[in-house]
Specification:
Elements: H1 8-23, H2 30-40, E1 43-45, E2 51-53, H3 54-75, H4 89-93
Antiparallel strand pairs: 1-2
Helix pairs in contact: 2-3
Length: 94
C-alpha cells in the first residue's frame, strides 16, 4: 500500500513477478500453477503494459487467466476422478 492507500503498485509488482515466473516455466507442480493462475486473474497487464485492475477490465482478465487455469488443470487430469489415481492423499484432496 502506498502513501495514498492504493494497492496498485503492489498489484503491479505481484503480477509482473508471477507472470515472469509463469512465462519462464519456473514452477513444475501443476496444482501450484493452477492456484497461481487463479490468483493472477485479479490483475491483468494490457498490450500497452498498463496495469488494469479488476475494476476496469474484469471480463478480459478473468476470462483469459481462468481459461489458462482450466486448460492447465484439464491437461493435468484434474477434471477426472481420483479414486484409482497414483496421487498422494494430500494431492487428491486439492
Amino acid at each position: 500500500m502506498d502513501a495514498n492507500g492504493s494497492t496498485t503498485s503492489a498489484t503491479r509488482n505481484f503480477y509482473k513477478h508471477a507472470k515472469a515466473l509463469y512465462d519462464a516455466n519456473y514452477e513444475d507442480d501443476r496444482v501450484t500453477i493452477v492456484q497461481a493462475l487463479v490468483l493472477m486473474r485479479c490483475a491483468w497487464e494490457g498490450p500497452q503494459g498498463k496495469l488494469r485492475t479488476r475494476r476496469h477490465h474484469a471480463i478480459n482478465n478473468a476470462y483469459y487467466w481462468t481459461g489458462v487455469a482450466i486448460t492447465v488443470a484439464q491437461g493435468s487430469g484434474m477434471h477426472r476422478s481420483f479414486e484409482r489415481s497414483q496421487l498422494s492423499r494430500v494431492d487428491k484432496r486439492l
